[in-house]
Amino acid sequence: MIDAARSAGEAAIEQVVESSYGRLVAYLASVSGDIAAAEDALSDAFLAAIRTWPQRGVPHRPDSWLVTVARRSLIDAARRRETAARALPEIARFNEEPGQLDLGDPDTVPDKRLELLFACAHPAVDPSMRSPLMLQAVLGLDAARIASAFLVSPSTMGQRLVRVKTKVRQARIPFTLPALNEIPERAGSVLDAIYVAYGTGWDDGDGPGRATGADQWNGLYPEAIRLATVLTDLLPDNAEAHGLLAMMLHSGARADARRSRDGEFVPLDQQDVTLWSRARMRAAEEHLAVALGLGQMGPYQLMGAIQSVHNLRAVTGQTDWAAIAELYDGLVAMTPTIGAYVARAKATSHTNGPAAALAQLDELPAARVSSYQPYWVVRAYCLREAGDRVAAAAAASQAIGLTSDPPTKRHLYREYLA
Amino acid sequence: MQYLIMALETPEAFDSRDDPERAGEYWASWSGYIDALRAAGVMEAAGGLLPPATSTTVRLREGQRLVQDGPYADTKEQLGGYFVIEVPDLDVALQWAARCPSAAYASVEVRPLMPARR
């Protein structure tokens, strides 16, 4: 009986953490202007819940209960530091907004996640820390997990997160929505940070994947999908948000086909299309349709469209490289990144032959490509297509040296060097 | 900043150095790594070590010389090679460490070199 009550309490806590963590941090940060204080206060509230819910039962509105406890803990913490100047703005803000939290209303915890996302990707926040900050504040990921995904030492990542939260508090980065005309640009920074999270864990592969037979993704793919979903829910008219989500869903649709049964790397053109996730592809197409319907073209929509054309092979049995090359032309015109140029060269090799592709690759600045793995993979491919096996092997050797994923290394060795 | 990348190897990895089935891929991964370090212009020094069985350990204790065949510590992973790289910071050093072949099957330790003292 007691055990049942306890486990019901614990299950309720887990469920709230799962579904409301970001909402609660966002609300507490928006009233205090302090992400770290909001996180601390919320963990105090979760501790209080662990102590009381199993005995006294789960409150009628768990979110409101937690916010009430957390708010008290925020105020207590501010009072304890009262001599410190940093406490003053927090208390002042509470006093300014006394009616903010009306516990009589069932929907009392306002959704401030969008404000939190904008604060995390604020221009005053170091661009390299926007993504880690979002992953921690909105999704509650711990510093060690974020550190591994970003290939940074855990102590360094912990210090950087503390520092960036101090900056947000001290600079009083606002937890408000930007003016309507600024939203597209500010949302762009949020999208870029989500894209960074999406790219962790497979910088040398061609998309997110999983170890064979494991549920564990090799990076932060599910987290990036969750963040982008939050953003499309809260900003339904932002075409680029839908474009980014469409791109990530299309690319993730191929996750299970990127490895063979025995864990070997399977390149895109040899993947078994029946292993591509129909559910993800369908969801991707829905977001792409919404995006294109909004009539504001942007780079993430082009990337989504490129992945869409690739995945059309599941239906047509072939790849429309001409369409892909054209989309890449648009992409490099909009965002001239090394990644876009290299991917365009691969498309060019299919439409205009390897010599034309190599000419495009040769135009790229050597300093930018010398340690960029995809460049050497595409270069090796084009050189072999052009009949130069020796030069292809040398390029493949560079690619192997820049790869960390063992199946990808093995694949390159067998293709070009064995 | 200079960092020492210590590439630890497993007994199986040492064995694959002259196993006809595995040597090609094994050496391709290391020479690719060296190619990439060279192309990036970050490699200051490097060396590969013969297997731990070729090692000899010397200790002096209370006037006694203790000479032992093999490495001092009897752990599964043993130093197989090292690289000294010159990179701006630890983040970049860790990127190179992750590409080091033995990171995937053993481990790679990264440590800053002491700055030169006058």
Largest sheet of chain B: 4 strands, antiparallel
Strand content of chain A: under 5%
Please tell me the overall pLDDT of chain A.
90
Q: How many helices of chain A?
A: 21
N-C termini distance of chain A:
66 Å
Instruction: Characterize the quaternary organization of these chains.
Output: heterodimer
Structural class of chain B: alpha+beta
Sketch the topology of chain B as an H/E string, one letter per element.
EHHEEEEHE
Share of helix of chain B, binned: 25-40%
Low-confidence stretches of chain B: none
* Apparent shape of chain B: flat
Distance between the termini of chain B: 17 Å
In short:
The complex is a heterodimer of chains A (418) and B (118). Chain A contains 21 helices and no strands. Chain A has helices at residues 2-32, 35-56, 62-80, 87-96, 113-120, 127-139, 143-150, 154-170, 183-198, 221-234, 239-253, 278-293, 299-311, 313-316, 321-334, 338-351, 354-362, 366-369, 373-385, 389-402, 406-417.
Please give a structural write-up.
The complex is a heterodimer of chains A (418) and B (118). Chain A is mainly alpha-helical and 418 residues long. In chain A, 68% of the residues lie in helices and 0% in strands. Chain A is built from 21 helices and no strands. The longest helix of chain A is centred in the N-terminal third of the chain and has 31 residues. Chain B is an alpha+beta fold and 118 residues long. In chain B, strands 2-5-1-6 form a four-stranded antiparallel beta sheet. In chain B, a hairpin with a 2-residue loop joins strand 3 and strand 4. The two termini of chain B are 17 Å apart. Chain B is flat and about 50 Å long. Chain B contains three helices and six strands. Classes of the chains: A mainly alpha (418), B alpha+beta (118). The interface between A and B is medium-sized, with 23 and 24 residues.
